[in-house]
Amino acid sequence: MRSFDLSPLFRSSVGFDQLDKLLDAAFREGARDTSYPPYNIVKVGDDRYRVTMAVAGFAENDLDITMTGGMLIVKGQIRNPDKDVEYLHRGIAQRAFEHRFQLADHVRVESAALRNGLLDVELKREIPEAMKPRKISIGEGASSGTGDTSRPTVIEGEKSRAA
Hints:
- The structure is a single chain.
- This protein is an alpha+beta fold.
- The chain has helices spanning about 5-10, 15-30, 160, and strands at about 40-45, 50-55, 65-70, 70-75, 95-100, 105-115, 120-125.
- Strand 3 and strand 4 form a beta hairpin.
């Protein structure tokens, strides 16, 4: 599927194993026809995104939006097609579709709305407080300004080795 090897990256890094899966998924999606229905992905703020899909002819109950394992899945299937209609020209496809969007860590679906044939899915990245950058203050350590560097710094959990 892929013609390049990521093993050098994995030998010198930790926690990037998801990158391999993400690239495989991207190449699989590239092989599928993802042109229907047309869609836009827009960055609308620092941590806000919107996926807009043109779903003309689909009603709310014809669409299914799910999020599982960091994957946003949008499916469409006309449940009650017009049976008594004879089309002379059919330019609005209304065929079944499924789109998968791999979401980054901490991105969640905030809302979805169907207006004027456009499905808008609002996304927001919410970084947990523990993962946000924070200022680390420098406190008194081995050198307290007196020039005494002979005392070892005591780190919690390592008291037995430092004594």
